[in-house]
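Sequence, please.
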């Protein structure tokens, strides 16, 4: 299973960006898709998640400005980021958790994967 994140870049304060994360690979059922970020010298933190039932959670710092969505059939997650602030500057990582199940009688094997990260810089 591989995750390919894209859409990062340099944007002025107040601007917008849309991140995408495409999941490839066979035999893996996705439960939750999420975005995390890590600023220099800081720990990685959760930004937003979306479950297979399309329930969403957001960090307080991005509530009302960011929106996470997913395309189930395309195995893609999106993060629409509006009203960007300099403190949003970070490397953004996508994450998925789910399971492998190779046959009907077989047990589920949980797994989690991370993308390579995409840089978002908010600066004038």
């Amino acid at each position: 299973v591989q995750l390919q994140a894209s859409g990062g870049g340099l944007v002025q304060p107040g601007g917008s960006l849309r991140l995408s994360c495409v999941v490839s690979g066979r035999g893996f059922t996705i439960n939750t898709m999420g975005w995390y970020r890590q600023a220099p010298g800081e720990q990685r933190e959760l930004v937003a998640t979306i479950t297979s039932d399309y329930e969403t959670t957001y960090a307080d710092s991005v509530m009302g400005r960011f929106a996470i969505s997913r395309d189930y059939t395309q195995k893609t997650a999106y993060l629409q980021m509006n009203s960007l602030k300099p403190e949003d500057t970070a490397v953004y990582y996508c994450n998925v958790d789910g399971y492998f199940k190779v046959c009907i009688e077989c047990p589920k094997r949980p797994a989690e994967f991370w993308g390579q990260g995409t840089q978002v810089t908010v600066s004038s």
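The chain has a mean pLDDT of 95.
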